[in-house]
Amino acid sequence: MTVYLLDTVTNDTKLGKLVFAHEIKPDDDSHQFKGQSKKDNWKPLQFSWRLKPNQKRQNLTINDFVLVFGAGNYIALNEKAKTVLEPALDGDAEYLPIEIKDEQSDRWYLINVIHRLDNVVDYEKSHYMDLVDGSRILQRPVFIERNIPNDRVFVYPNTYNRPIAKGEFLKELVAAHKLTGLNFLPAETVEAGPLPKSAAG
Asked: Which of 50, 63, 70, 171 could pair with 20 in a Cys bridge, judged by C-beta atoms 3.0 to 4.6 Å apart?
């Protein structure tokens, strides 16, 4: 089965993106996601649409899934997408309501994946970026497919803000309901070997 990295990245300036609208205090971790449930003590965070100079909100095209900046999560989804995903990802994720500055009509959520897997990355075979100080950053993980349950969404240590999916179930669900904005990027696995250059990016 294919393992997919989920994201909402786009270079189209007409597509809406959300930015965390509050100043972050040093001791405030309310916006940090660690693969654990937050619904019991969640207070909706406020976001605003990220606009280019001289750009107006009404000129944005808003997908069902949008990119988030500034909070410990990359993906926000609207009520339509939540209705579709919630029964399919039962037990793997929760949906935390957020507020959009100057908007009251549309309901938006951050998806918080709470299905954590700790032994699914081969760190020796993964790809890193070397820094000038001698340290390195994990740039592209290589997953151990046999350790990942089929047709599930999960997060792994140190990257709790980016959901991973194994299998076609979610991709097919999104396509069947014509949901927009969610990208499925094939990930490298130990079992399948390196990706073609066109897929690896």
From this structure: 70
